[in-house]
Amino acid sequence: MPMNALVVEDDAITSELFVDALRDCGFDTRSAGSAEDAVKIWQQSEGFNLITLDVGLAGGADGLEFCRWLRLQEGGEDCFVLAITGRSDPEEASHDRW
Asked: Which long-range contacts (CB under 8 A, 24 or more apart) does 67-70 make?
């Protein structure tokens, strides 16, 4: 059974690094540059085993909003989510926001 991953990251270089690393590990990998794009990809897919998710996505919805939406979708509760942030301020990256 193929392992599928979705990289949700608005920085192109970081996204490419994650996509390459996951492909090297055997994942079939797709990427989205925003939460809105990730929603569209999820809705057109059969789900993902793993999602790497930038918490601080630029633009509309952030990574936390996408994660909340994901957990309400059929199969969304079964997907592993690796939340990532480039923020260095502990208050901003706090789990209390979750």
From this structure: 67/98, 69/35, 69/39, 70/42
**Contact by Cβ (8 Å): 65, 55:** no
The model carries a pTM of 0.87
* AA letter at 84: I
Residues 9/19, Cβ–Cβ less than 8 Å: no
Overall average pLDDT of the 19-27 stretch? 96
* Residues 70/76, Cβ–Cβ less than 8 Å: yes
Burial of 6 (0-12, 13-18, 19+ CB in 10 A): buried
What are residue 37's phi and psi, to 5 degrees? -65, -40
Of 43, 52, 50, the residue nearest 73 (C-alpha)? 43
> If you count them, how many residues does the chain have?
98
